[in-house]
Amino acid sequence: MRPGPAGGPGGRSDAKETTGGQRRDQELHGAAFFDLDGTLLARSSVFALAKPLRDAGVLRSVTVARGLAAQALHFRTGGRGGARERVLGAALRGVEVDRLHAVLDSCVEHTLAPLICQGVTRLLRSHREAGRSLYLVSSAPEEVVTRVASMLGVASVLATQLQSIDGVYTGHVSTFCQGDAKADAIRHAAEAAGIDLASSYAYADSISDLAMLETVGHPLAVNPDRELAREAHRRGWEILRLLPPAARK
After folding, report:
1. Per-residue pLDDT for 106 more than 60?
2. Is 22 left (phi over 0), alpha (psi -120 to 50) or beta?
């Protein structure tokens, strides 16, 4: 699948006033924003990393059990409320930031690379070749998403931020990137980077990402849940089917 031609409705967007003066229309460019879990990855990145984090002594078994319950809630609610991310945040209370980073450096690629859906590399390349900026936009922790972005060659990340003080996680989430917060993060990033949202693309799988999809001129529902599929059909949005990694031959 290749994205459509560059440019939004009418091939232009309204210029916005910036501190440097009036931004010209021709200085704006498009972008492509990708949800991660269930969209580019076939399953939850946080859930997939629970075992290696437990094996490394970062998480306790009881925390993994709570994560399973949070994952079940995630599927029932379409990700609204961020139960699994909040469980992870609480579980990391007292863990040194450097320790988590070292463990993630050792396990993210070999744990999550096999979960990348078929066609993702080609999809990212098509947007890159069209001159669009690429963003991962995820409720997963920034520590995880930045590493996946590096694997995929994506330069920019908008993700949940776990609070730390003096190099130690407090157990709290300082910025939760979910629902309307994803849409707000995209708008702020677009304003800062001179991105024309009308000519931009967004990809997501869950109804919880409806606000994210509504921010751009070219929304695509990827392997959508029932609610998002219904909404995509109603609005005439494209539905993209990416095969799971297990389907590769």
Report:
1. yes
2. beta
